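ok, trying the design again with the full structure, not the truncated one.
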């Protein structure tokens, strides 16, 4: 994965509803901005959504929060993609930010 990420960034109490139609998990190398920051690999969850849910952009969201990935992956594996929506709401600010996840049938 050489291209830039399309990171899903939500502010405190901000939310989004998406319809996952495809997903993949991959590693991505980041380069921390501080001086001695060595490149670091992170796990990324990429979720594709229908075009009407993302009129501009590549048609997917990249999720880098490891706690959010851990919450979403079992849902994505268990349910039939394209048949449900997921509401994601950010709670707090980094580094203590967490997310609520609600499945909408």
């Amino acid at each position: 994965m050489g291209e830039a990420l399309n990171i899903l960034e939500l502010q405190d109490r901000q939310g989004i509803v998406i319809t996952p139609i495809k997903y993949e998990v991959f590693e991505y190398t980041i380069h921390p901005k501080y001086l001695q920051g060595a490149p670091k690999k992170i796990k990324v969850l990429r979720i594709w959504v229908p075009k009407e849910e993302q009129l501009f952009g590549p048609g997917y969201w990249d999720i880098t929060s490891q706690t959010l990935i851990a919450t979403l992956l079992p849902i994505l594996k268990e349910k039939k993609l394209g048949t449900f929506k997921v509401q994601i709401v950010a709670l707090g600010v980094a580094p203590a930010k967490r997310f609520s996840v609600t499945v909408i049938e």
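Keeping the full-length input from now on. The beta strands are 15-18, 22-30, 40-48, 60-63, 85-91, 98-104.
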